[in-house]
Amino acid sequence: MRALFCLLLAGTTACAGAARSTSTSTTPARDSSQAAIGLGSTSTPNADPFPSTYVPFPSRTTVIRNVNILTAAGPTIRNGAILLQNGKIAAVGATVNAPGDALVIDGAGKYVTPGIIDDHSHLGVYAAPGGNALSDGNEATNPVTPQVWAEHSVWPQDPQFPRNLAGGVTTLQVLPGSANLFGGRSVVLKVVPGRTVQAMKFPGAKYGLKMACGENPKRVYGNRGGPQTRMGNVAGYRSAWIRAVDYRRKWDKWNADHKGDPPVRDLGLETLAEVLRGNILVHNHCYRADEMAQMIDIAHEFGYKIRSFHHGVEAYKIADLLAKEDIGASLWADWGSFKMEAMDAVKGNMALVDHAGARVIVHSDDPSGSQRLNQEAAKAMAAGAEIGLPISEDQAIKWLTINPAWALGLDDKIGSLEPGKNADVVLWSGDPFSVYSRPEKVWVDGALLYDRTDPSEQWRTDFELGFVPFTGTNR
Amino acid sequence: MKLLISKITASLVAVMIATATLTAQTIAITGGKVYPVSGPAIDGGTVLIVNGRITAVGSNVAIPADAQRLDATGKIVTPGFVNSSTQLGVQEIGAVQETRDVSARGKDNIAAAFTVWDGLNPNSVLLAPARKEGITSVVVIPTGGLVAGQAALVDVVPGTTTDMVIRAPVAMVAEIGDPQSAGLESRGELMVKLRELLEDTRFFQTHREAFDRAQTRPFAASRLDLQAMIPVIEGRLPLVVTVDREADIDAAMRLAREFNIKLIIGGGAEAWMMADKLAAAHVPVLTGAMNNIPAGFAALGQRQENAALLSKAGVPVALIGNAGGGDEEAFNVRNLKQEAGNAVAYGLAWENALRAVTLTPAEVFGVSDRVGSLQPGREGNVVVWSGDPFEFSTRVEHVFVRGREYHDKTRQDLLMERYRNLPNSHNTPPQ
Asked: Are residues B270 and B293 in contact, defined by beta-carbon separation less than 8 angstroms?
């Protein structure tokens, strides 16, 4: 699909990186046939009508020396070094061979971690300063809206983006809200300044599908035609998947033989069909253990995988099931009791789930909490210690980096400090699990995009100019 | 069904009360680094509690022979923390109306007579988790409308509301940040409404007999609301005004000057912009250190240095939860120490952060003779920490409220115990 786009835009820079995606997408014959019909008229796996235009910011070769490194790929390296070169991590270890022109940063007493990844954000779709005009996260007009895409709501000038970056967050999954059974497609963004959302999109990242269990859909639609009950919710999921299976079969057949007119395109079913093909990852808002088990059965019934349960405050009750099914648990450290289905929240949730062998992810769902995911992990570590389930820093760093990277299908590119991976790196003033530590510098693809010691270089959105007092430190 | 539920609740409460231990009349906490807050830290200090009250604090305290000794060597000893803005006990489950008793309908958004503590549920399962993490007193604060009602300061102890209350009321609460939520069109109109209420209170105060004979003009508020406002205009009861925008804080200060009101700013996102004026007027601010979101046009200047900048200017600061998630008012009252740690990370001196969660709130709400410091005569509200109280890795080792130690099993603990070891099949519920 990317290749086709390049044909139409021959000679433009938008085709960068197309060669790689060609090999994994469609056959040339099919491409030419689609070109004849015209872009947008066919339902095609891996379609990418709003391609990323992200280009890494200028970077220089950088070495951080004499620093403690939490790699998320092995034991902590004490007083080690890391080399960032050409946007990638070139070397990490006790020492590194740095070129003579490299910028050298002394990290004595400090810590380096991979960039933090929040797999549950609404930045841009619920932008500050808020209010109805910027409330773009829930298409609460119908309980089934897989046809909406979060990226079409993202406001790149949301002043919450630079604050997130200053909290060490380098990658975000922006999700639609949870009013609907199917809320729509998510988008994975790099936390970088951009005039357009396309300029923030993580190149090559898969889309996610937001689904929601429980109270929210039945509360929103209870008096608006339903679902009014949890059983109504489940009927809603299954009815949609039945249509999606049918839709996928018809399109797969037509894509294979091109006999007759193509089936009619349906944006929503296209998204669901992509889930069934394994090209879109399911992120399911679900609090209660019993409902998570039902969602797993629905996934089995229709042959798709749930990538991660979000908010699972009762994940600890079915941690073994999550481990068996290889489903992530995107969790809060200590939020609960704000509604009935959040009543059984316990502070030991993450530790219990981790010790049962399931994949813990610290997520936020909150623009403020997203800036302190390290502190959320630290609270969960303390709760684990209290119940005799200690969590090492080497394990907890995974909750913040490689595990959410996996949830987004990006664990081959980000989430750990290993040679060849993207140089998304945070330098912390101290141990990231201390309440007193803060990110000092944040690199995205090797480019220094946040420096607490240099306020003049800090990213300020258009919105902030004039409106938000420039203090130089309010990050 | 309802009967069954109340039986379960009753037995839960029984379990929790039964876990209180160390009930000796005289308790000596020895050897720790003691932060009385009212004075300098004492290395290897002793805190003596007799019959629920602190009787001595120092490095050379004579320990009675019958005292139960608690060795706190290597530990930190502080007063129990005071969270100045909570809905603890008046909100159990946010979205379940039946468990929410935080606001009053009032008349035209004025509910000055509303005594929020009358709806307090001492059996709330959220009390024990707060206490377990070192919160021994809270201000229970009403919300909603223009004048939300009266706040109380309570100790986090089992018993009845009467048992828990340290003082009620400790403040009147008004919310002036959002005219629309008060049913009004603009900030100016909101101030008119407040001024009318205060003027009517003055008139009512001096024309009570005429009022009782129905010989007065109509008032802006009901009899009970006017009556409740009298201590506010007499300067006996502080008025907490929750407000964020600099200009709105200034408007609140003008009104306070005009009516001789003892003002407390709640929230105060942009208070740092006028720190000097607040300091000069001796107006305390209740604020947090975990929010930097320009979350509305009234909070564009919100920043995490707020508490530090105010403190540097000489403004009394009491820390409250302001991370923005919402449930910090009830479920996460316990996270006050995280606010304090973040306040330090954003420039507040450590000792001032400790003061901002102990003695300052006690002073602001007029109960420093009862709680907030380790001094003779104060309630035996004492916490022994394994290390720095603000640090995540620190454990709360002992919590005393009124001289009695609690290490309750909370509802959360019971759930974790139940699911700690999962059965082999996920289809089998644990016993």
From this structure: no
